[in-house]
């Protein structure tokens, strides 16, 4: 090893789901939305001018924070935007989890949490989901350096009741509590922790344009919290990269955020397909927790998940398989269009 | 202070140059290119499809790294891309400067270096430029945890000879040496440290689309180095955010990188205006080092920089003033179009 390598930060990076180039594949592996974004988004991209390309974007991304503030009835000073919710979450780990005390998150959850903790050398303790894949509220009432969990959780799809979220916040005035709501728009209305913001200065709610708004390709995520939290987060962001949101993302994001009707309609379609898929998969011998997201996390009574994953792959249907303890018997299946799901069901009917 | 604030990372962020909304202002404060990017860039943005918006982008940004690799005659595995060179540099600080030993950079330089070091708690020692605002090669031959400097340096505009860069690399096999070449395309051909790459595995050269390619608004920066360096950098990047380059940036970046003729022509025009500006400003009583960039760092024999900055501002001409030791008598003036510079010269002729 060359001597310059002594000072290199060694990490084991997160492995994202595959992005195959073949567009004929039925792609049910990365929880993308099968429907297009608001037509305003393409129009906004075509409207980007030479002058705005030439110039630095607004570092405060005001056009986007303002539109989101209006949509969620908060002050623009309560909104932070980033390059996907991963950027928002990475910056939040860097900003808020510096006490030296271990942070808490579930053992079965978004696998990036562990990666960020390792990257920034943040100690952590994983808390075991119960046998029904539910987050156990009481596990988050002990001393900690911060708390993060997705709600609904991924890859399980299970939603925590808002009462339990409130209990966790009440017990933790000394920590920042991050509720990662990447999938919240697919859950019943009123499930979001956003309504708890007036009560808790230390609550950060993170959401994304990647799922419900069909814009994974534009990398837009956001956080809403108290002005104090957002101020700290911006200080770290401005110490990392002044201008994270390019002119195209700002324009496209604004157009999407102004057209809430569009995404609510696509979400309605995805939910209808999800509920139909639950019935189909049940009839085929699969079991699963009650997902409130745009994916199902399923186990078959007979077929091994890994074998099924590979058989589907050979048939041009890609789902997600995690080779990890407690979940290596499961597949995570993104809800696609009805037509895509029928291809999946037909394959399973013939091959199980 | 609330108890949750104990674990918050406190930093003093970098202050970017102002981005006024009034388009009638003569904006010579953030080193943007006054000419538009390649026409292919707008076309690429209009060509972004609904399907690519809906899907995650390629995390490896292969379409862009491949085009850059071809343009610079290196392997795609030697190229890293990020959200502007700030993102590339931030990630490089995080990845490479972990030895615990102080890193070295000039006292008068890009002020973000100090901000990144503070953010990541990296010790550093600033090395004094000499009276002619040159980087002193011998200051970089002592023990260190890493070296970074811009070449040409900013805000001075001064270029270091490649022989001196090589000397620094030869003396530092135990550190990563980052040459930040944001302005290199405005320097004489052959000035880049890229030609030293075959000799030094620990050399990272960072460049940007923001200046010569007129694309500050799209946030595209890149690094070229040994495959080993790029591999480590990617590991940290994938531990921070899998997908940093959105579909619009990938498409626009590819179009720009394929049209080198376009940016070389705009650079030629900027250089011609820069050389004419040197003469005009000289005749007006300004002195300056010999800038090889798209800006001039000037001091007037009589007028105080701060007063001049404010007078220009009132006249609708924005330049950059740094209220810092050793340079508080200077203004940094971006090279605009000939017409913009004439407005500046006319004002100065009437008011000095």
Compact overview of the structure:
The structure is a homodimer of 352-residue chains. Chain A has 352 residues and is an alpha/beta fold.
Blueprint of the fold:
The structure is a homodimer of 352-residue chains.
Chain A lengths: L25 E2 L11 H8 L3 H5 L7 H11 L6 E4 L1 H13 L6 E4 L5 H8 L4 E4 L19 E4 L11 H9 L6 E4 L22 E6 L12 E5 L1 H12 L8 H12 L1 H24 L2 E3 L6 E6 L4 H10 L2 E2 L12 E4 L3 H14 L1
Parallel strand pairs in A: 1-11, 3-4, 5-6, 6-7
Antiparallel strand pairs in A: 2-8, 7-8, 9-10, 10-12
Description:
The first copy, chain A, has 352 residues and is an alpha/beta fold. Helices cover 36% and strands 14% of the residues of chain A. The first copy, chain A, contains eleven helices and twelve strands. At the A-B interface, helix 1, helix 2, helix 4, helix 5 and helix 7 of A face helix 1, helix 2, helix 4, helix 5 and helix 7 of B. Chains A, B: Belongs to the class-II pyridoxal-phosphate-dependent aminotransferase family. Histidinol-phosphate aminotransferase subfamily. Chains A, B: Its EC number is 2.6.1.9. Chains A, B: Pathway: Amino-acid biosynthesis; L-histidine biosynthesis; L-histidine from 5-phospho-alpha-D-ribose 1-diphosphate: step 7/9. Chains A, B: One of its GO terms (biological process) is L-histidine biosynthetic process.
CATH superfamily of the largest domain in chain A: Type I PLP-dependent aspartate aminotransferase-like (Major domain)
Low-confidence blocks of residues of chain A:
none
CATH topology of the largest domain in chain A: Aspartate Aminotransferase, domain 2
Name the structural class of chain A. alpha/beta
Major β-sheet of chain A, in short? 5 strands, mixed
The SSE string of chain A, one letter per element, is: EHHHEHEHEEHEEEHHHEEHEEH
Number of strands of chain A: 12
N/C terminus separation of chain A? 50 Å
Greatest chain-chain contact = A-B, 91 and 91 residues
Helical content band of chain A: 25-40%
User: How would you state the average pLDDT of chain A, rounded?
Assistant: 96
Briefly, what CATH class of the largest domain in chain A? Alpha Beta
- How many domains of chain A, as an integer? 2
CATH architecture of the largest domain in chain A: 3-Layer(aba) Sandwich
- Describe the oligomeric state of these chains in a short phrase: homodimer
Structure annotation, total helices of chain A: 11
């Amino acid at each position: 090893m060359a001597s310059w390598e002594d000072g290199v930060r060694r990490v084991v990076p997160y492995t994202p789901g595959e992005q195959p180039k073949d567009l004929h594949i039925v792609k049910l592996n990365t929880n993308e939305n099968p429907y297009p974004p608001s037509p305003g988004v393409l129009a906004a991209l075509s409207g980007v001018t030479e002058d705005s390309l030439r110039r630095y974007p607004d570092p405060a991304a005001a056009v986007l924070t303002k539109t989101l503030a209006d949509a969620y009835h908060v002050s623009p000073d309560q909104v932070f935007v980033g390059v996907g919710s991963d950027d928002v979450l990475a910056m939040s780990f860097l900003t808020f989890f510096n006490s030296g005390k271990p942070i808490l998150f579930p053992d079965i959850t978004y696998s990036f949490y562990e990666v960020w903790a390792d990257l920034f050398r943040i100690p952590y303790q994983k808390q075991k989901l119960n046998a029904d894949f539910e987050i156990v509220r009481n596990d988050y009432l002990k001393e900690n350096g911060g708390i993060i969990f997705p709600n609904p959780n991924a890859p399980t799809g299970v939603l925590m009741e808002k009462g339990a979220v409130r209990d966790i916040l009440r017990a933790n005035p000394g920590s920042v509590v991050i509720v990662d709501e990447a999938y919240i728009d697919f859950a019943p209305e009123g499930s979001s922790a956003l309504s708890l913001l007036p009560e808790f200065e230390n609550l950060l709610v993170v959401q994304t344009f990647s799922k419900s708004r069909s814009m994974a390709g534009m990398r837009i995520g956001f956080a809403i919290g108290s002005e104090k939290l957002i101020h700290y987060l911006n200080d770290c962001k401005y110490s990392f990269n002044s201008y994270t949101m390019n002119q195209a993302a700002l324009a496209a994001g604004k157009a999407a955020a102004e057209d809430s009707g569009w995404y609510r309609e696509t979400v309605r379609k995805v939910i209808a397909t999800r509920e139909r898929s639950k019935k189909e998969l049940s009839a085929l011998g699969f079991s699963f927790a009650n997902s409130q997201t745009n994916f199902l996390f399923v186990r078959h009574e007979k077929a091994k998940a890994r074998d099924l994953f590979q058989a589907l792959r050979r048939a041009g249907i890609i789902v997600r398989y995690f080779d990890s303890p407690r979940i290596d018997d499961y597949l995570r299946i993104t809800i696609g269009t009805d037509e895509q799901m029928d291809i999946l069901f037909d394959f399973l009917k013939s091959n199980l």
